[in-house]
Specification:
Length: 162
């Protein structure tokens, strides 16, 4: 048996407790490159303990709805940004922390061009593209020590589309 989560469109307000929704909404902060580029400045609050920021490329297999959620993870030593390298939406799953354990998960679907930055220590699902290719740039902490905690649910969730 599983529990059900209905996904919602990703908005900055709804996602704020878990991290930063990254997009090019509104006017750019600055026009650069001889007037040919809008810069949307400093959209994510990167937060690392010891270590440094690194950029990695992930190529994940696409998933579909309903999506079976049986595990979430978190990174206590650093934030983690997922930036799609295509204009396809992806599924974002987060859960509040309840006394060191994940609470009831929430699911969001990004709009094309949106990215996310999970705050340090935020419970979240694995990278879940909904279309191929599942190519992402990931900015996260590179350093010594354990930076991954996983929790497997006794009773999984089924995530469905809006």
């Amino acid at each position: 048996m599983s529990r059900r989560i209905v996904s919602a469109p990703l908005t900055a307000e709804a996602f704020a407790p878990f991290g930063d929704a990254l997009d090019v909404a509104g006017e750019p902060d600055k026009i650069i490159n001889q007037g040919q580029c809008g810069r949307y400045h400093d959209r994510a609050g990167l937060d690392f303990s010891n270590g440094r920021a690194g950029i990695s490329l992930f190529n994940a297999n696409p998933r579909s709805f309903p999506y079976r959620l049986d595990m979430v993870e978190r990174h206590p030593e650093g934030s983690q940004a997922f930036i799609p390298m295509t204009q396809q939406p992806f599924l974002v799953i987060v859960a509040p922390d309840v006394d060191g354990h994940p609470g009831a998960p929430l699911a969001f679907v990004t709009a094309p061009g949106q990215a996310v930055n999970y705050h340090r220590g935020t419970w979240h699902g694995v990278l879940t593209p909904l279309h191929a290719p599942g190519l992402f740039a990931v900015v996260d902490r590179i350093g010594e020590g354990a930076n991954l905690e996983e929790v497997w649910f006794d009773e999984p969730y089924d995530v469905v589309s809006v």
